[in-house]
Amino acid sequence: MRFMIIVPGSPETEDGVTGTEQQFADMQAYNEEMFKAGVFVDGQGLHPTSKGVRLTYDGGEWTVTDGPFAGTEKLIAGFTVIDVSSREEAIEWLRRWPASCAPAPGQALELRQVLAAEDFGDEYTPELRAREETMRAEAARTAAGG
């Protein structure tokens, strides 16, 4: 099962503050621990919303709104994806999150399970699943430089 750990935004991340040397070292050690355990899939920080856009669909039209966006409590500063055997294992990994990188008081890391093909039901036909698997395999080859 894959889970995404969602890191909340803050006024600092919205100002473009990415972290201290100690925070980078702590997060690198945590990611390496997950990698060695075979559960690390990906993890990335995100640029502030001042460099982002939102697209809203209404009445057949898309509207593009440039950032920055208000309400940092609803923003995402980064994410980590892990592949573990259970929700409990995911929570245990989350409990190991480096204290130096913990969200500010009043904020929380969020853990969400990633939907898998079997979660979609009969509407996600075997043909659609096969197309998805082919596309993902090709994307992985492209990302690997092959």
UniProtKB/TrEMBL annotation:
Pfam families: YCII
Positions of the YCII-related domain: 1-99
Cited Gene3D superfamilies: Dimeric alpha+beta barrel
Family: Belongs to the YciI family.
PANTHER family assigned: BLL7163 PROTEIN, BLL7171 PROTEIN-RELATED
This protein's name: YciI family protein
UniProt organism field: Terrabacter aeriphilus
